[in-house]
Amino acid sequence: MIEIRHLSKTFASPEGEVNALHDINLTIPDGDVYGIIGMSGAGKSTLVRCINMLEKPTGGTVMVDGRDMGALSPAELRKARRDITMIFQQFNLLMQRTCLQNVCFPMELSGVKKAAARKRAMELLELVGLPDKAGAYPAQLSGGQQQRVAIARALATDPKVLLCDEATSALDPSTTAQILSLIRDINAKLGITVVVITHQMSVVKEICRHVAILDRGTVAEEGLVSAVFAAPRSQAGRRLVFPGRVDEKVIDPARRGQLRLVFRDSATTSIPLVARMARERGILASVISATTQPLGGETYGGMLLSIPHEQMAEARAFLGSIANLTAEEVSDHV
Fold first, then answer.
1. In Å, what is the CA distance from 163 to each residue of 49, 296, 327?
2. Which of 72, 88, 262, 310 has its CB 3.0 to 4.6 Å from that of 76, i.e. a possible disulfide?
3. What is the structure's pLDDT at 249?
4. CA 235 to the chain's CA centroid
């Protein structure tokens, strides 16, 4: 288990101190696939680098399997990092070494005998689907193949935690889907805890069970992916889930309000709610935006309605009678 408590990180700059992280509190269960998402500059990469102490926190603690990572000696930290490996956006392979030699490299550093290292490296290349590329060099591979080799290398020390820092950001959508499928399979087969750092909602929705949304160095909200993305509570979450903004001139705030609906199954998303409200209750709602998305094997939908203030209470009462639907009055355009 990874337990992050009251974590903060401050950097010095010519303009003064920059608070990259402030009072971060997260718990990542063993065997989970945990997403950390946010816009550029939210502090995602700083946070993941604090987990393995590539960045030393200014305050707070990071506990991995009961060990305080910040209290370890340099030798103890090097040993601990064998259990907490990392893959990056730019792969970071050794270009002068073959794929097999790249995967062998961390085992060489750990003192594994050459024959045993080569045997294990071939097993890992088989696991990531590249047994025929053992003698190839990184420059001879596609980006997706290079990331597969990087994943095999990260698994060479039999880690308990795999940190993925924007690991698919440099890949095209098709290759991204393949790499995410591979990471999901590795998590299922090996039980490795996976922490995914990304700015892409599609990545989190594809493989993560839990997610934390970072906003300007703080945790805006966290929880199950289905719960957070179906009904985000924070402005940062809403900006990610509902990225389009409404032109305020379209709606007269003195005369109309806004109601955000979240549908939690495919049957509910098919109900003609606007037509039913008009026909059965005489409620004059207009649709500002509407979306559907798959989450955790189920279909979720979202809708933003404009409703006259005097009909808002009746609209909420009508919508509250419908199963698997939540309605929330909103006062801003996020």
1. 9, 22, 37
2. 72
3. 40
4. 17
Q: What is the 3-state secondary structure (H, E, C) of 130-158?
A: CHHHCCCCHHHCCHHHHHHHHHHHHCCCC
Contact between residue 205 and residue 293 where contact means Cβ atoms under 8 Å apart: yes
**For position 190, what pLDDT does the model report?**
92
Report field, pTM of the whole predicted structure over 0.85: no
CA separation for the pair 87, 128 (Å, rounded): 14
Q: Which of 219, 216, 197, 218 is nearest to 208 (CA)?
A: 197
CA 289 to CA 247: how far, in whole Å?
12
Residue 96 near residue 105, CB atoms below 8 Å:
no
pLDDT score at 257:
85
3-class state of residue 129 by DSSP: coil
Distance from C-alpha of 34 to C-alpha of 283, rounded to nearest angstrom? 42
Q: What's the first-to-final CA gap in the chain, in angstroms? A: 34
Give the C-alpha distances (Å, rounded to integers) separating 35 from 28, 64, 309. 10, 17, 38
Structural contact between residues 251 and 260, judged by C-beta atoms closer than 8 angstroms: no
C-alpha 176/C-alpha 143 separation (Å) is 10
**In the block, residue with structure tokens 């939540």:** 326
Nearest to 232 by CA among 204, 212, 257: 212
